[in-house]
């Protein structure tokens, strides 16, 4: 079960890194001074990536919890 815990931890860290990367992309997009339509289009793509990263992080946490429960 240790492999499930460590693998889940790694997956969670990758997801957290993706969330932080999305935050960085949003800050960069806001600093560029785009018009509202362009900014909205870019933020919609970033939100999709953010949801994917959040899902990856949740799967990792579920794996950690399963590893702890089974171990």
Can you walk me through this structure?
There is one protein chain. The chain is an all-alpha fold and 71 residues long. The protein has one domain (2-70). It is 92% helix and 0% strand. The chain is built from two helices and no strands. It is rod-shaped, with a radius of gyration of 16 Å. It starts with a helix and ends with a helix. The model has no long low-confidence stretch (mean pLDDT 95).
DSSP, total strands: 0
Average predicted local confidence, pLDDT:
95
Rg over CA atoms, rounded to whole Å, is 16 Å
Categorize the overall geometry: rod-shaped
Helix content: over 70%
Distance between the termini: 6 Å
Number of helices: 2
Biggest sheet features: none
What are the secondary-structure elements, in order, as H or E?
A: HH
* Number of structural units classed as domains: 1
In percent, how much strand structure appears in the residues? under 5%
Provide the low-confidence segments as ranges.
none
Kindly name the structural category: mainly alpha
Quick rundown:
The chain has 71 residues and is mainly α. It has helices at 2-31, 36-70.
Task: Give me the secondary-structure topology.
Layout (H helix, E strand, L loop, with lengths): L1 H30 L4 H35 L1
Index terms:
single chain, 71 residues, 2 helices
């Amino acid at each position: 079960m240790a492999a499930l815990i460590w693998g889940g931890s790694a997956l969670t860290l990758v997801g957290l890194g993706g969330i932080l990367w999305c935050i960085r992309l949003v800050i960069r997009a806001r600093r560029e001074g785009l018009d509202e339509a362009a900014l909205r289009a870019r933020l919609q793509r970033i939100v999709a990536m953010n949801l994917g990263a959040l899902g990856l992080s949740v799967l990792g946490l579920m794996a950690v919890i399963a590893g702890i429960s089974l171990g």
